[in-house]
Amino acid sequence: MYRKYLTPIALGMTLATISDCTLAEDSDHEVIIIQSTKQDVPLGHVDNSVSVKTGEELEKAGIFAVKDLEKVFPGLVIQTRGNRTYANTTIRGMSSPDYYSPTVSIYVDGILQDSAFLTQQLQNVEQVELLRGPQGTLYGGNAQGGIISIITKKATDQAKASAGVTYSNQSRQLNGSAAIALSDSTYADLVIRSLTDEGNITHVPTNTEKANETKELSGVARLHFIAEDSPLSMTLSVSADDLDSNEEWYLTQTEFDNKKTSQTIPELKRQVNTYSVNIGYDLGNVTLTSITAYQNRDVDRQFIGGDWEEDQNTLSQELLVNTRFNESLSALFGGYFESRQLDVGTESGAKNTIKSDTYAMFGQTTYGVTDTLDLTLGLRASHLSTSSDFDGNPLWMIAGYNEEKSESMLSPKVAIGWQVNEDSRVFASLTSGYRPGGFSPVPRSYGDKDGYDAEKSLNGELGWRTSLVENTLVVSGALYWIETKDIQLYTGVPGSQILNNLGEAKSHGLELELAFYPTTDLTLTLGGTQGKSTFESGNAGLQGNTLPYAPDTTAIAGIEYFLPQSLLDGEVSLITNARYTSSLFFDERNTSSQSGYTLVDFAVNYAFNDKLSFRLFSNNLTDVEYKTYSFSMGGPALSNYGTDREVGLNVKMEW
């Protein structure tokens, strides 16, 4: 597991939180430090439902992209809608019909990722953290379901490099990384990854095989300044991702079965560039952090009906102050600014420019009421102003408009944690979240000029973590309920729908996770969620319907076993992961659905030494057929389908 070296203030906060108790993880496993709380807290002392996977664990499980994280995080559902640019992420039943405004946000090293980049490749990962439930106090809007925080590895004073190649019946992948020390205090690292999903659909009119091929090239370059004798640290980062895809096919069942279609070949190009500066200044009892980021995303989509173009630019600035007043009281204060401009060109040539500015101040303080009881209070005040300059759409007979609106939000939080003993903790929390109001990027009616208001959620949670049998069994769980008001939904006749606010929704359920280490050679993991997410009153005839992309049940199970053998030099391990997803609906009216299904992945890992390893794998071992999106316009259902059985080999070398 990942061990993070704590700054003096973080160490003080940790010791104060733990008091006389010892860390539950430290007898057989290293301490896992959660950074998505913005205060570096040991996993066993986070008063929120959280799951974490290290980069090594993800690599062993064959997880190389965000879209595959649902295989290892119970309750997480990630489905693409047409192509990987338009994805839906669901946690605790919280999903979004508007892919421009998700209910789950993704952060990479504290930087919010564009909504069209939620299924990105995982690059140089140290660990991935999943915070469940509304996170409005620390993260603001678009975090009603939770957040996924990706933390990358930092360069060290040791030069190292790696290269890997993966080849299967479905895809090809090349990746490489290098890290060097430029001086005693300056380090650099570089990561490059190339991916080709070959496709399996034949385009009949042109006799084009593999007409749904997708290619993606991505890379990250960073420069770190970390001096032992200086309180100042700095990281400069530049990343780029280039996607060229023909994957957006909406196929009938017959077309999918025959792997043939006469539909027009779709094309999509997406480019995402991100530039950031992260500056830290450690004053001992006070730590200052500044995160400045600029992200540009261009999408050019050629689809039935014409060309669709999108260009979004986002500039953000966050300032954080972490401080410790005494042994019992610590606090986090922050300010956040974001300026975003989205330019959308529709198939008819109509253009819409949406500008938004967000200002926020937030704070969170933790007080040790006793040696074993902690109280956390937090509050975020946000102000959002947005405008839409739409030049009209003659094809749809919609006049142009130029409208503005603004709103202010308060996002409170209260949590209490009780350290029952050195191995067990119980916590309860009340948190809030929201999806910002605004204007529809693609107006389908003149009524869209009125825009829509924020959607607001309140979450109650009772959770626990415990280590048993001399830390060989780790169990965690949570009971939760979420009430959502002013739901943002599309209403009206299909094709001319308006995005506006309707009524309420409720979600409640149980989450469980278990890790069992019966021997040093065997690891068993289990996880599951059982809940219900429904529309309530005020939803235009939807009351009682299940929220889209919200299965009642999810379950995961994993086994890692190191084979006792002397035939080969090195280590041989077997890894199996299975995931069950119960039936879910793709629309609010519950007319399009996917029945429950189970996917099984299997791999044999052979580590010849610490420099060379091989991984023979099969994803979707039993070749289950399932849909990731489906709809009907009066005729046969048109659907996107999941990946068929994949069999391949990965080879990795490290220096």
TrEMBL record:
TonB-dependent receptor plug domain: residues covered: 46-147
Cell compartments where the protein resides: Cell outer membrane
Chain segments annotated as coiled-coil in the UniProt record: none
Primary location recorded for the protein, binned into one broad class: membrane
Stretches assigned to the TonB-dependent receptor-like beta-barrel domain: 241-621
Cited Pfam families: Plug, TonB_dep_Rec_b-barrel
Keyword terms of this UniProt record: Cell outer membrane, Ion transport, Iron, Iron transport, Membrane, Receptor, TonB box, Transmembrane, Transmembrane beta strand, Transport
PROSITE patterns with a match to the protein in the record: TONB_DEPENDENT_REC_3 (PS52016)
UniProt cross-references to Gene3D superfamilies, sorted A to Z: TonB-dependent receptor, beta-barrel domain (2.40.170.20)
Gene Ontology biological process terms in this record: iron ion transport
Domain of life of the organism encoding this protein: Bacteria
SUPFAM superfamilies referenced in this protein's UniProt entry, alphabetically: Porins
Record membrane topology: Multi-pass membrane protein
GO cellular component, one term: cell outer membrane
Family (UniProt): Belongs to the TonB-dependent receptor family.
Name by which UniProt lists this protein: Outer membrane receptor protein
